[in-house]
Write a structure and sequence with these properties.
Layout: H1 10-15, H2 36-45, H3 48-53, H4 55-68, E1 74-75, H5 82-89, E2 91-94, E3 98-101, H6 108-113, H7 124-137, E4 143-148, H8 150-159, H9 167-175, H10 177-201, E5 205-210, H11 218-235, E6 239-240, E7 243-244, E8 247-251, H12 258-261, E9 268-270, H13 277-284, E10 289-294, H14 303-317, E11 323-327, H15 337-350
Parallel strand pairs: 1-4, 4-5, 5-8, 8-9, 9-10, 10-11
Antiparallel strand pairs: 2-3, 6-7
This protein binds coproporphyrinogen III.
Coproporphyrinogen III (CP3) binds at residues 28-33, 42, 48, 75, 77, 79-81, 93, 98-99, 146, 148, 162, 209, 211, 330.
């Protein structure tokens, strides 16, 4: 069989709002610490970045959730912070503290000194992981590649890690907008090259995680986050192996800006749980596909409640194609794997009635 043949293209059809037999689903962070088999490989690898840098191990954990659940896509196992790491900031993950950079962006000189990382050099290991995933998948389901948005990456680079207030990164935007634009331009160029490299290596769909876009005011969101995502999307190859390579933009907390987000050139818009599917479909469902939007905390509740929420989410989207079922943010490490099974089964059981005649 040619490696280009897909046994399950449901999600690619849904991204283009074409007819499907049931609503496709995958989960943000579907390969991760809630799975005991992930924790096992993670401990063998030593560090999280060690896992990302090994194409063989990255491919193995990418496929783990597909062995357990009947999902319609795989997402490359990696992290959004590989790009700032490749720009020389020195990334590590400290248990209990999350990501930490050895160096952070503190001045104009720091911005000017940042090197442009190349998908074929510093980030070659990610492209090798994409290739290894495609080989292991052997056409089972499509592989999603991804990146962080320039703004979301910039927050980590300026703060030096995670932040609750984004005080340093927002101060850069307010006090030195030109410097912020220079940093974001460098990141947009790096991200465009990174995503192009992933498509060339075999990614069949792409997603931009704008996790912290919702922390901005409307005007700064438009100028400092959305504008850069549009610019990136414009420059991407949109076809590979004879098929469209759909792009999803996910701005967490972006529900109030859906009309603008739907104009950015993306095929699909990711939603968190603070927007109702019904509202989103009415507002932008005629332009783009919609991905989401179960609150990941719902997976801590009892299986019967989970089934009802799946039914509600599907009913809110309603009849017809263009829904990619997902969570509204990443699955949490404490999630019981059997509750995930309840969600997946409910999507399989309840969604066919919304498709066909
Ligand atoms: O979805 C998937 O299965 C693909 C893998 C993936 C990871 N991170 C693996 C990971 C993806 C798509 C990401 C994206 C990512 N990383 C985002 C954007 C999406 C989001 O969740 O908002 C962000 C903000 C990051 C940055 C990051 N990486 C954080 C905040 C953390 C958590 C740190 C911690 O210790 O809790 C990470 C680490 C990380 N990335 C883990 C995984 C499975 C856990 C690390 C481990 O195994 O020790």
């Amino acid at each position: 069989m040619s490696s280009h043949e897909l046994k399950n293209d449901r999600i690619l059809r849904a991204f283009q709002r074409q007819e499907v037999d049931r609503t496709p689903l995958w989960m943000m962070r579907q390969a991760g610490r809630y799975l005991p088999e992930y924790r096992e490989v993670r401990s063998q690898a030593g560090s999280f970045m060690g896992l990302c840098r090994s194409p063989e191990l990255a491919a193995r954990v990418t496929l783990q959730p597909l062995e357990r659940y009947d999902l319609d896509a795989a997402i490359l196992f990696s992290d959004i912070l590989t790009v700032p790491d490749a720009m020389g900031l020195g990334l590590s993950f400290v248990t209990g503290e999350g990501p930490v950079f050895e160096r952070r962006i503190q001045s104009n000189a720091d911005i000017d000194a940042l090197p442009q990382p190349s998908a074929q050099k510093e980030l070659r290991y990610v492209m090798d992981a994409v290739q290894a995933c495609r080989q292991e998948l052997a056409g089972r389901v499509p592989l999603i590649g991804f990146t962080g948005s320039p703004w979301t990456l910039a927050t980590y680079m300026v703060e030096g890690g995670s932040s609750k207030t984004f005080a340093a990164s927002k101060t850069l935007v307010y006090d030195q907008p030109q410097a912020a634009h220079r940093l974001l331009t460098k990141l947009a160029d790096a991200v465009a090259d990174y995503l192009t490299g992933q498509v060339e290596a075999g990614a069949q769909a792409l997603m931009i995680f704008d996790t912290w876009g919702g922390a901005l005011d409307p005007e700064r969101y438009r100028d400092f986050s959305l504008a850069y995502m549009s610019r990136i999307i414009e420059s991407l190859p949109r076809e590979a192996e004879g098929r469209r390579v759909p792009v999803t933009v996910f701005t967490k907390g972006g529900g109030q800006w859906l009309e603008e987000i739907a104009e950015c050139g993306a095929d699909a818009v990711g939603l968190d749980w603070t927007t109702s599917m019904a509202d989103a479909r009415q507002r932008i469902g005629h332009k783009v596909a919609l991905q989401g939007n179960i609150d990941p905390c719902m997976l801590h509740a009892n299986p019967e409640f989970i089934r009802q929420e799946v039914a509600r989410c599907l009913a809110e989207f309603g009849h017809g194609p263009g829904h990619i079922f997902n969570l509204g943010h990443g699955i949490q490490p404490e999630t019981p794997p059997e509750n995930v099974a309840a969600m997946v089964d409910a999507v399989h059981e309840f969604s066919p009635q919304y498709h066909g005649n």
